[in-house]
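May I ask for a single protein's sequence together with how it folds?
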Amino acid sequence: MSTEVKAVVTFQAASAAVQEFGVLPLSSFIPDHPSLESITTKESWHTGLETDPWLWRDRFAGEGVAAYGRFFAKKPILISAALFPLFKLAFGETRSVEERYAAGLVSKAVVELYRAIEANPGIDVKSLKKQVGMQEKERKSEFDRALIDLQASFEVVILGISERLNEFGNKNGWNSTCYIMADRWLELQGQSLPELSMTEAQEALFAQLEQQVSPGAFTYLQKVLRKR
């Protein structure tokens, strides 16, 4: 299929692109496949305007257009709301976080972050660090790795952003990313996992992706997902 896309200038057009391709990374890394970066103009980024794709990335998740997170390759990716249940069922973690920790497969930080996000849907990064006692700069890498692990297992997604406000209600500082359990995000969108086995879900997902992405992108996605 063709991956030629005219320059997108509105959130609505970008949303249509997410639905068309199913998987849309923020930056280009999937072979022969578009990204939010490639379908928009460089000049439109980081303007703070309604046409700024950097601001759209959180709207996709908040408005239920797509699940947003670092699901594979440690890169920020949008997966259409229609496809995300299949992704989660096909490649999501089936063992509990405690079972994985006991088997030495994940760090204690993964367990702590999982429980904190589960208990506090939509928690922002600043509050999450405080909740798990990882505010120190020396623990930033550990914190970031644990968050990526939870997104790569399709257990946690980005819900959107919260604005930093001062005591007068005025914006003060950088916005903060908010996280929520993937199951809870699906509930908010009125969705549930299909009644399929993991193998059936993988077959259904790849059949769908084959229709939506180029041969080169399809080969890459098969490889990166199956080696997990």
